[in-house]
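Dear colleague,

Thank you for sharing your sequence with our group. We've completed the structure prediction you requested, and as agreed, I am returning the results in plain text so they can be pasted directly into your records. Please verify that the sequence below matches your submission; if there's any discrepancy, let me know and we will rerun it promptly.
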Amino acid sequence: MIGLTTKELLAKKKFSMLIEDYETRKLNLEKFISSFTDLNRVKIVKLTDRFGPPIHEPAYDGLIASQETYPGALKINEIRENKGFKPLIIIIIPMLKDSENKRISSTSIRKKLSQNDKIF
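Please find the predicted structure tokens below.
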């Protein structure tokens, strides 16, 4: 299961005007997934709140988070435990760095796009 955030939840992000609409991002995600596996193996869910289905449904086992989103993953587990759900296994992925050893993020990419700079 992959949670894809609605544009409304992204409105406060820097350079949010450069974020594509939900349907375009979903289509691009489906194309990417299809490039290496059968799309039927994946379910894309629309995230309308910052925690998503794992705080409402006990059946989840794990969550992949970045170093940046780790505090949110901990909050999800806190909410789950308060509801009597088992905590999720949290897998942390490392941040990527550019050639200048600066963190690569969607915000840094949008900033460079807004300045018409070379991305990386």
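Summary note from our side: The chain has two domains: 1-49, 60-120.

Kind regards,
the structure core
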